[in-house]
Amino acid sequence: MSTRKGIEVSIAAADAAKLARVEVIAAYPITPQTHIVEHLAEIVANGELDAAYVNVESEHSAMSACVGASATGTRTFTSTSAQGMELMHEILFIASGMRLPIVMAAVNRALSSPLSIWGDHSDIMAARDTGWIMLFCENGQEVVDSIIMAFKIAEDRRVLLPLMVNLDGFSLSHVIEPIEFPAQEDVDRFLPPYKPLYTLHPDKPVTMGAYAMPELYTEAKYSQEMAIRNSKVVVKEVMDQFSKEFGRPYSIIETYNTEKADTVFMALGSINENIKTAIDMLKEQGKELGLVSLRLFRPFPAAELLEVLKGKKKVAVLERVMPGGAMNGPLFNEVASLAVANKLNIQFENFIFGLGGRDVEPEELMDVYEQVVSSVKVSHTDNKYYGVIGVRS
Amino acid sequence: MAKPMDQYKWHELTVGCVIEDVGNAMEYKTGDWRSSKPVWNGEKCTKCGLCWLFCPDAAIRQRDDGFYEADLDYCKGCGICATECKPGAISMVEEER
After folding, report:
1. Per DSSP, what are the bridge partners of residue A388?
2. Residue B75's pLDDT band (boundaries 50, 70, 90)?
3. Same domain for A35 and A110?
4. Quick check: ipTM above 0.95?
5. Residue A167 belongs to a domain with what CATH number?
6. Of A42, A220, B31, B64, which one's alpha carbon is 20 to 30 angstroms from that of A117?
7. How far apart are the CA of B19 and the nearest CA of chain A, in angstroms?
């Protein structure tokens, strides 16, 4: 029997890793990820989970330990945020290049400087092209379910890639939500023990992470690229199977009110709940706004997104990271290349919001909607192509 | 590897480029960027084998007559053998290619 309880999402994320029967955890505490790894340490110390908890001196070591552990063929889990993810950065590429199905709960947080412990997507957007599969979560239930699905996706022989489950720092990680936990026996049936393709074992020695000469590096990276591109099929399969077995529907793109609206917002993560509230409030005024929520960000679900955007007139892409000198935010750039490649006749707008934990209320989102619907092209101050919601100028 | 590196197609590579037949580095000649090579002086060499012992790439072999020589397919010309040679029988000679 599944159990439903009110629980902090971080604690629930740790419990989900326990349900997935992780065997090695290597992590270093950092706000706002701390409660996840603290609770896992507690679970392991209490003997509730038969896992090795590796205490490390940094995130660089945490991810390195995960690479080593996963190479031996164990189910490996870690979690980090912000500066911690930056310190892992070098090893993130090694994990994906070596095709190790490590799962990470990435609790998204702003990057210093200025120092901020609060949520935004600066960390994950700096790591977006590391070759990891990336899921984004809107609420605590999705976090729990995604962590369980993550191992099944990552460990599939057709995939064998690391995977990040993204959840917003504080606005998701630290809230208490009613969450349904599947029964252990059901999770065991859904997620059997990991059967690695290769293991580091003295009985059958292999070399992992070897050197590639210029004659081979391109083919090696192309093979990895094809693996992440093709993983979308498995992500879909696993989501379908999860939906069937646990009764909660998942898909790589989720939509809200997109049938009626020809103006849609697109965003990643917990802001989507605020956008839904704004959509409901607009509906009361007789106005229609839709939402396109990407649950899968890597590999980028281009074909599916194209299908969803068909017939739309205006699309506003909302994202929680400063472009850093780029023409637009990273999600917008992605969507813009989709639009160019397919000659989409849609008005695209880009808005930056929620940096360093700044709240964005549904009323502000309704203002953005009004701006988008009322103009042929929203004009932005300071000679740039994106707006920054709520910036004082 | 069953064939030269530049003949592999991307889908012929193992997952994560894992090398299943270990020890195959032998198949690749890695000494071609050497700038100098060790040359033994048979008058001074005592066949003690220190050069063989210290070579970090196992690129020194003993000949049937007991003297040592470098396997120039793998020797990188690091000069450790010349430094460690007690009787001073090894000198590093610049490669001219």
Report:
1. A352
2. very high
3. yes
4. no
5. 3.40.50.970
6. A42
7. 5
Report the CATH number that the domain containing residue A308 is assigned in CATH: 3.40.50.920
**How far, in Å, are A255, A275, A365, A372, B90 from residue A377 at the CA level?**
24, 21, 17, 7, 77
**Do A178 and A309 belong together in one domain?**
no
What is the reported pTM?
A: 0.92
Does B9 contact A197 at a Cβ distance shorter than 8 Å? Answer: no
Q: What is the pLDDT of residues B8-36, one digit of tens each?
A: 999 999 999 999 988 787 788 888 889 99
Cβ of A197 and B5 within 8 Å?
no
- Confirm whether A393 is domain-assigned: no
State how far residue A90 is from chain B, nearest Cα, in angstroms.
17
Asked whether residue A273 falls in the same domain as residue A382, the answer is yes
What pLDDT sits at residue B1? 57
Structural domain range at position A293: 253-388
**CATH code 3.30.70.20 for B30-94:** yes
